Amino acid sequence: MAVNAKTRNSERRVDHSFLQGALILTIGMAVVKLIGALFKIPLAGILGVTGMGYFTAAYDLYNPLFTLATAGFPVAIARMVSESVTRKRFRDVRKIHRVSIPTFALLGVVGFVIMVIAAPLYANFIKSPGVAYPIWVLAPTILFACLMSIYRGYYEGMRNMTPIAVSEIIEAVSKLVIGLSASYLVIQIGMSEYAAKQTVFGIACESEAAASNAVLPFAAAGAILGITVGSVFGFLFLVLRYKRKGDGITREELAYSPRPRSNRSTVKTLVRIAVPVALGAMIINIATFIDSALIQRRITDIMQSQPETLLNLYKGVIKPDETDVAQTTLYGCYSMAMTLMMLIPAITQVFGISALPSVTAAWTEGNRRKIKSSIESVLRITTLVTIPAGLGIAVMAHPIAELLYLKSNNQADVAVVGNVLSLLGIAGIFIATNTPICSMLQAVGRVDLPVKLMSVGVIIKVVLNYTMVGIPEINIQGAGTGTLVCYAFISVAALYFLCKETHIIPNFVSVIIKPLIAAGFCAAAAFLFNQLLGKMGLSGRMSTIAALVIAVLVYVIALFCLKAITKEDVLMLPKGQKIAKILEKHKWIG
After folding, report:
1. Which of 179, 200, 432, 576 could bond to 386 as cystine, CB 3.0-4.6 Å?
2. 29 pLDDT exceeds 70?
3. Collapsed DSSP state (helix, strand, coil) of residue 199
4. Is-contact 263 99, C-beta < 8 A?
5. How far apart, in Å, are the Cα atoms of 275 and each of 84, 268, 280, 332, 503?
6. Would you call 492 helix, strand, or coil by DSSP?
7. Helices 411-443 and 448-469, interaxial angle, to 10°?
8. 190 three-class SS
9. Measured CA distances, 44 to 96, 223, 544 (Å)
10. How far apart are CA 434 and CA 379, in angstroms?
11. Residue 428: left (phi > 0), alpha (psi -120 to 50), or beta?
């Protein structure tokens, strides 16, 4: 019997529990987000809100294409691999990896070509010609992201989250170093050219202010160069690691594995699972893309019909002589608030990644008790993070925005970011909770339900955003309202159908009520101590940091007092037995 050469040199197969996998991914995500903050916050200072508008607009075109090409197949690979490992069909595991490579390569090439062609068309539609430059630089990323998704989905299904986390960190470091350097250098080169020739990269400019605006699209493209290079390095790491260490499947496991399914059957199953997942994710991203265009167009309409309303509301943000970029400026403020809010879903996204193979394994075994335990653990760990984070951001929106953005932006811009963030904080709870719930629906075989719920949610979002942003007195705040209502509907409906499909009702006191009560204490402590420390003369930034630290301590104490963490949760941690004994001794866990 032939055995793949990689089998002889494979490392021992890793099998992380849900919480172990989530912990590894969370640590990796924390590092990535820290690096991301070190990238995004200085970048906001380099580019300003208008430059950030160009940067974000490029992603608004990229995200739907990226999602269409990659969202479904990694989930399909992970689910099929996890199911095959549970059934000890290891030859199927290898075949899934082989047949996915040409499929993903083709999707990546198609996505790259579409981005290159669509860039000027999209830029013309949103009346922002400069957006084409960052889109062109971002285009190769879709190819390498597709190729990375093969290996990430494979390792996810094997429940080995370490390679995924390392590749993400490699991407982030490249983005930080190359992106910031390129963006800064582009601005320096462009302004030096203006000083010498009154042009910026060949574009004639009448004033220094015009030159500063003209250089921003190129600077945004420089920042995105780091992201593109990072995707190349991340892919190379995963390929080299797989070739060097394999996947942990032993010769014996292959020898006793049943005959694998045919290539046709494997591809058919991949597509059957992947298409609904990809459609669901694509719908959300297309809605974001549509929102980006509609929000900016609606603000442009207000500037044409009632400019005095926005000029009065945003003194210091929209300058009377720069009304032609008002839509980009306000959308830049919105995107900066979204960047902070999306820190919450970024964390719980790893819960969804880790939950899918764990719940799939329990569902495949048909162990009802294990299924209930898995669902409750995922929900509880998710809400323990999302509810306090969302409430905390909502009540501390302005101090957090000032802490992170004030040094690089003027007070008026940061005030707008804070206003938007106060609403998005609540929305973040539902956005972040939605991902793990939908992952569990996919794990139990209902890959069609998330796409159906998201379709309805997106309709709600687009209608509300279009209507409310068009009201001059509400304007950009209307986008936050649409986001909140959309994801509240999706999360509640998805949880209902998860209970219906599995015939399991989780303990809602444990998974929602206790985290909500503890989060209430956390948010109240953050707000009150920030006010108190400010009155005591502590600087704004120091009082914000101190209040957040105190709020975390209050939250942890509240969790132990309420016994919101269970023994089963603790046992899934590294050294879980030892930690559980200590907590049980003090009666701190339920």
Report:
1. 432
2. yes
3. strand
4. yes
5. 20, 11, 9, 33, 26
6. helix
7. 160
8. helix
9. 42, 11, 21
10. 10
11. alpha
**Which pLDDT band, with edges at 50, 70 and 90, does 1 fall under?**
very low
Q: How far is CA 393 from CA 333, 335, 367, 528, 541, in A?
A: 16, 15, 39, 14, 15
| Residue 584: CA count within 13 A, CB half-sphere | 12
Question: Taking each helix axis from N to C terminus, what angle separates 411-443 and 72-86, rounded to the nearest 10 degrees?
Answer: 40
User: Which tokens go with 159?
Assistant: 């429940």
Rounded Cα distance, 542 and 519, in Å: 22
Nearest to 278 by CA among 502, 427, 63, 21: 63
Task: Write the single-letter amino acid at 303.
Answer: M
Model-level pTM? 0.70
Q: Are 216 and 48 in contact (CB under 8 A)?
A: yes
Instruction: Give the integer Cα–Cα distance in Å for 143 and 140.
Output: 6
As given in the structure block, the two tokens for residue 210 are 């015009």
Question: Largest Cα–Cα distance in the chain?
Answer: 79
**Rounded distance between C-alpha atoms, residue 32 and residue 490, angstroms:** 27
Task: Please tell me whether residue 200 adopts helix, strand or coil conformation.
Answer: strand
Q: Helices (DSSP H) in 87-157: which residue ranges?
A: 90-125, 132-157
- Cα–Cα distance between 524 and 388 in angstroms, integer? 10
Q: Are residues 77 and 270 in contact, defined by beta-carbon separation less than 8 angstroms?
A: yes
Backbone CA torsion sign across 38, 39, 42, 44: negative
pLDDT digits (tens, 9 = 90+) for 385-428: 899 999 999 999 888 888 887 766 667 778 888 888 999 999 99
What mean pLDDT do residues 326-352 have? 80
pLDDT at residue 218 is higher than 60:
yes
Angle at 188 between CA 185 and CA 190, to 5 degrees: 105
| Region of residue 146 (phi > 0: left; psi between -120 and 50: alpha; otherwise: beta) | alpha
Token readout for 445 is 């075989």
Q: Kindly state the tokens that stand for 178.
A: 């190359």
Residue with tokens 């007092």: 561
Q: Residue 505 region, left (φ>0) first, then alpha (ψ -120 to 50), else beta?
A: beta
DSSP summary character for residue 259: P
Amino acid in position 285: N
Greater confidence, 270 or 553? 553
Alpha-carbon distance values, 39 to 49, 136, 487 (Å) = 15, 21, 28
d(CA 227, CA 178): 8
Residues in the chain: 590
Amino acid making up residue 60: D
Considering only CA atoms, give the Rg of the chain.
25
